[in-house]
Automatic annotation (TrEMBL), chain A:
GO MF entries: 5-oxoprolinase (ATP-hydrolyzing) activity
Species, as recorded: Desulforamulus putei DSM 12395
Span of domain Hydantoinase/oxoprolinase N-terminal: 3-158
A Gene Ontology term for the protein's cellular component: cytosol
GO BP terms, alphabetized: glutathione metabolic process
Pfam families given in the database record: Hydant_A_N, Hydantoinase_A
Protein name as annotated: N-methylhydantoinase A/oxoprolinase/acetone carboxylase, beta subunit
Domain spans labelled Hydantoinase A/oxoprolinase: 179-459
InterPro entries (UniProt xref): ATPase_NBD, Hydant_A_N, Hydantoinase_A, Oxoprolinase-like
TrEMBL record, chain B:
Single biological process term from Gene Ontology: epigenetic regulation of gene expression
InterPro entries xref list: HDACs, His_deacetylse_dom, His_deacetylse_dom_sf, Ureohydrolase_dom_sf
Domain Histone deacetylase: 69-276
Cross-referenced Pfam families: Hist_deacetyl (PF00850)
Full protein name: Acetoin utilization deacetylase AcuC
Gene3D superfamilies associated with the record: Histone deacetylase domain
Family to which this protein belongs: Belongs to the histone deacetylase family.
GO molecular function: histone deacetylase activity
């Protein structure tokens, strides 16, 4: 039996899956202490089922997201080697930064050597400021980590007890500013996350659950809990991924669906394209910082069932914040949920109180309660539909760097609009009508997120770059930089990438999930100098197939 | 709201002229690495768009492809031209403040008649953009400033008789580099005198010399001309490390040039120092367009002490600038009928060499000297193609500003030449109605396309 848990901002949802069937579900309010919510959810779920029967637990947690959003992380001293290019002075505004001399170029060649004398200065700066956590990030360090290694080694030599993170380990892809963010956040959250992971292990042990524990990532893949401790940033924004995978499990395979997750204060939009959730072309953004964290392409609209509704003059306005529950549920102010209640599109809450909320808004300007309710629902739908259309335009604008990519571009339009989350039933049929799609409200929609967590599977990627002129290769995910021995052709490069994927799987104890390997990119560049080919550059990406463990029920349209 | 700089990056990682040709897949690879690593596409000042394809008609608005568009133009070319058009749309719609089409293949050596690839170019991306903007949005006056080390002879050829398109090209002196043209006396046809300005510069020009040209010649000319839209043919082979050119311009020099020129749209042209120049120059230009600090974009090879300009070079620059200043100042004194020596038609005979494919074209271009408009043009062109086949074609182009008479006479000429046994193909381009005609005499087939 599998357990999936989604610790969300307001609610913690949990499901127990037995094959393709849902055995139990639980919904508890999320407490300040996430572990209490986790424990409550587990206890509610397991009632009478012995812990040994559980084979796998996957959970999605907002702990790191919250730590970062609330800036409750530890201070980090940042050492940067920016080399030539942008000035990056703006980083001084968000981090305490010390700039070092030294630079690497795009092919991993040293263009400016480190200045050893500066290292002592940097160390004194860290000591004076009282930092014990240090992030060292160089431009193009993923192409050559020598400078980062040297700086980190120097610091460790003098302060073995300090925590030092290096850019090439925390963010292996090209994008120096995002690598800085990944490294700083890894450094800042690692201790707190470790504490959390220990508490999770403890909670499992106390319930006799000895199953493997995984954490959901923003791209819909999972990581073993122990591995995630090395890369806590990878756990941010897994909530929308949970809902999307849930919809994937609850709808027939292979269809194109728009997922509309209407929560209390936000509506998340995602796309399942021919049965596969669409990935964002760039990493996730947290607060005002861009990261390298791979994520599904999710758009958040700041409107939900609990958004505050007010009247300004003769106009009804929906605000993005939540003050409390809907008025019909005893909250202080009118909300879209009250409007739905008045229109009879939901049975949640007290009908009289809902009507009272509408009257309060409409009476002074001579609008009847039903008219007000229609206006509010119309506003919500307009906002969401506008955002959906914008989103499709953006997806069509995704960059293409190869001729074939430009030629195969086509218009994306979904068949289905699938609603999950609290407000789904009230809004989704109308949203679907506006888009000319079939509305689907799957069974278990309120816990689709937990189902998504339960069916998520580990995904592993390896991006390999090999340069036969310089006889070197790089594995981005591992921060590994090695030497080639002898000739390498395209097939050899692909094999090398695959072998590193297997190594990675073995290290994470995930070999059982690697039955097949997909090649997602294979670029070959002739290095031409003076009309002669002097070498080749191979850019190879391989991964384990993305997907879910299985579909739930008929995976079909039980309710329309 | 702050308006952004739009960029279309199209490195065509799956297209090359041939396996070891400089115009190859690898060309923008390191530029991509540098741009991605700098995180430049995350900047709030910059927005990336995806390219679209220019249609056959968009290409026929400018070129006569022999025998037809599909024989000369690959998808990669249509994407590069389409990228410039797409950014043009966004600029006219004021969605972005300016743009950079960082695309390959390049285009500025492609002339009006296309028998094959010249100087790595098949179709002229800037010209396709310009005709599209004029046709679609009625943009009147356009300036194209070509900052490639090579003379933009293709662009010059296409707009040589058009007084509303100002073409300014500075380049290494044609006596020392391909394509061997671009001298100060090439000033445009009689009806478009001084709407072509060539600034041939001696090898060894540094940033200081280039900015002298910019400040004392290009900027004042642009201020006088008052263009509605400025296109920059942004070649990067004036760089001090370029393998084909012998100039000594730096990334900083290019960025400052961009800052002064303030182009609406920059379109990448040449530049084959793909490791030592392109990553830095492209970054610097993009930052300059976006109004960001580019002062730290310094090439590893850059050493300020090495960049003293030879006084001989400096004095030659001053001489050329002085000569052109005088021509520009006196441009209104030139009378088009006098320039044409009183003839009804102004005629040029041009041998055109296609270096990439070893094609030699013979061309006779005849422009009607008209009091009302720039005049329609007939072109008699012949060449042997690499397949051994000889093509002899006749092409007529009626300008967008055409008067009634020139338009009628152009169409009449087309109908007459259709029966002329000398020509395999007869073409007509009527820019005033956006119509394109092609007649295959041997098959007696006619094709028409309308915008």
């Amino acid at each position: 039996m599998f357990i999936g848990i989604d610790v969300g901002g307001t609610c913690t949802d949990a499901v127990l899956l037995d094959g393709g069937a849902v055995r139990a579900t639980a919904k508890v309010e999320t407490q300040e202490d996430l572990l209490i919510s986790l424990g409550d959810a587990l206890d509610n779920l397991l009632k009478g089922i012995p812990g040994e029967k559980i084979q796998r637990v996957v959970f999605s947690t907002t702990i790191v997201t919250n730590l970062i959003a609330e800036k409750k992380y530890d201070p980090v001293g940042v050492l940067l080697l920016p080399g030539p290019g942008r000035t990056f002075m703006e980083f001084r505004q968000q981090d305490d930064v010390f700039f070092l001399t030294g630079a690497i170029d795009y092919r991993g060649r040293e263009i400016i050597p480190l200045e050893e004398a500066e290292l002592a200065k940097a160390l004194r700066w860290l000591e004076d400021k009282g930092y014990q956590r240090v992030a060292v990030i160089g431009k193009f360090s993923t192409r050559n980590n020598a400078h980062e290694l040297r700086v980190a080694q120097y610091i460790k030599q003098h302060h073995p007890e300090w925590q030092v993170e290096m850019g090439h380990r925390a963010g292996g892809r090209l994008n120096f500013p995002r690598r800085i963010t990944n490294t700083v956040l890894t450094c800042a959250t690692r201790d707190k996350y470790h504490y959390f992971a220990n508490a999770v292990r403890d909670a499992m042990a106390r319930r006799d659950i000895s199953a493997d524990v995984f954490i959901l990532k923003a791209d819909g893949g999972t990581l073993p809990l122990t591995v995630s401790e090395q890369v806590p940033v990878e756990t941010i924004f897994s909530g929308p991924a949970a809902s999307t995978l849930g919809v994937q499990a609850l709808t027939p395979a292979g269809e194109t669906s728009l997922v509309v997750d209407i929560g209390g204060t936000t509506t998340d939009l995602a796309l399942i394209l021919s049965g596969q959730p669409l990935l964002a072309s760039r990493g996730a953004k947290i607060g005002d910082r861009f990261t390298q964290v791979r994520a599904l392409a999710v758009h958040s609209v700041p409107v939900g069932g609990d958004s505050v509704v007010e009247r300004v003059g003769k106009e009804i306005i929906i605000y993005s914040e939540r003050v409390g529950h809907a008025y019909c549920l005893g909250g202080p102010l009118p909300t879209p949920t009250d409007a739905l209640r008045v229109m009879g599109m939901t049975q949640i809450g007290d009908e009289d109180r809902a009507r009272e909320a509408m009257v309060r808004l409409g009476a002074p300007v001579g609008m009847g309660p039903m008219e007000v309710a229609h206006t509010i629902v119309g506003l919500v739908i307009n906002t969401v539909v506008t955002e959906i259309e914008q989103m499709f335009v953006e997806w069509e604008q995704e960059p293409a760097y190869r001729v074939w990519e430009v030629l195969q571009k086509k218009k994306l339009r979904p068949q289905n609009v699938v609603g999950v989350g609290g407000g789904a039933a009230g809004f989704v049929p109308q949203i679907a009508a506006r888009l000319g799609c079939t509305p689907i409200l799957p069974p278990y929609a309120p816990v689709a997120n937990a189902i998504g967590a339960a069916v998520a599977r580990p995904t592993l990627q390896v991006n390999l770059l090999a340069d036969t002129e310089r006889q070197i290769f790089i594995v981005e995910e591992e921060g590994y930089q090695g030497k080639l021995s002898g000739k390498l052709d395209e097939i050899g490069a692909v094999e090398l990438a695959k072998s590193w994927l297997m190594k990675r799987a073995e290290k994470m104890n995930l070999l059982e999930y690697v039955q097949e390997i997909e090649i997602t990119n294979r670029d070959v560049f002739n290095i031409v100098r003076d009309w002669r080919t002097t070498g080749r550059l191979y850019h190879i990406s391989v991964q384990t197939p993305r997907g879910i463990l299985g579909h739930i029920g008929s995976g079909g349209r039980l309710m329309k | 709201m702050m308006k952004k700089t739009g960029i279309i990056f199209f490195p065509a990682f799956d297209w090359a002229i041939s396996a070891t040709h400089p115009e190859r897949e690898e060309r923008l690879l390191y530029t991509r690495d540098q741009m991605f690593e700098e995180g430049i596409l995350d900047l709030p000042e910059i927005e990336e768009f995806s390219p679209r394809l220019a249609s056959e008609h968009d290409i026929c608005r400018v070129h006569f492809c022999v025998p037809s568009v599909s024989d000369q133009v690959l998808e990669a070319h249509r994407i590069a031209a389409g990228a410039a058009m797409h950014l043009g749309d966004k600029i006219i719609a004021k969605q972005i403040k300016n743009g950079f089409a960082l695309v390959r293949p390049p285009g500025h050596h492609a002339m009006r008649v296309v028998h094959g690839n010249r100087g790595f170019c098949n179709i002229n991306n800037e010209a396709v953009l310009v005709e599209y903007l004029r046709r679609t949005y009625g943009v009147k006056k356009i300036a194209i400033v070509d900052t490639d080390v090579h003379h933009g002879d293709g662009t010059q050829d296409i707009f040589y008789h058009d007084p509303d398109v100002l073409f300014i090209s500075f380049h290494q002196d044609g006596r020392t580099i391909y394509p061997g043209t671009g001298f100060t006396y090439e000033l445009g046809g009689p009806g478009a005198y001084a709407s072509t300005i060539n600034i041939p510069l001696p090898p060894g020009v540094t940033d200081a010399g280039l900015h002298y040209v910019m400040d004392h010649l290009i900027s004042p000319i642009l201020a006088d001309f008052q263009p509605d839209f400025v296109v920059n043919s942004a070649g990067q082979d004036n760089h001090f490390t370029d393998p084909l050119g012998q100039m000594r311009i730096t990334a900083q020099g290019y960025a400052r040039l961009t800052e002064k020129l303030k182009p609406d749209l920059a379109v990448l042209e040449g530049g084959y120092a793909i490791e030592t120049a392109l990553p830095y120059v492209n970054l610097a230009i993009l930052l300059a367009l976006a109004g960001k600090d580019y002062s730290s974009v310094l090439e590893p090879e850059y050493n300020p002490d090495r960049f003293k300009e030879n006084p001989k070079v400096t004095s030659e620059i001053h001489r050329v600038v002085g000569e052109l200043q005088e021509i520009w100042a006196n441009r209104h004194k030139a009378d088009k009928f006098a320039l044409a020596n009183g003839a009804k038609y102004y005629q040029r005979t041009k041998p055109i060499y296609y270096d990439t494919q070893f094609i030699e074209e013979k061309q006779i271009e005849k422009v009607r000297v008209c009091a009302q408009c720039p005049g329609y043009i007939t072109i008699d062109s012949q060449a042997y193609h690499p397949d051994g086949k000889r093509y002899h074609v006749l092409a007529i182009t009626i300008p967008i500003q055409a008067c009634k008479y020139c338009q009628e006479e152009g169409w009449d000429a087309y109908e007459q030449y259709k029966h002329d046994y000398r020509f395999n193909y007869v073409y007509l381009q009527d820019k005033s109605t956006d119509t394109f005609m092609m007649y295959r005499r041997e098959e007696r087939q006619e094709f028409r396309s309308d915008g």
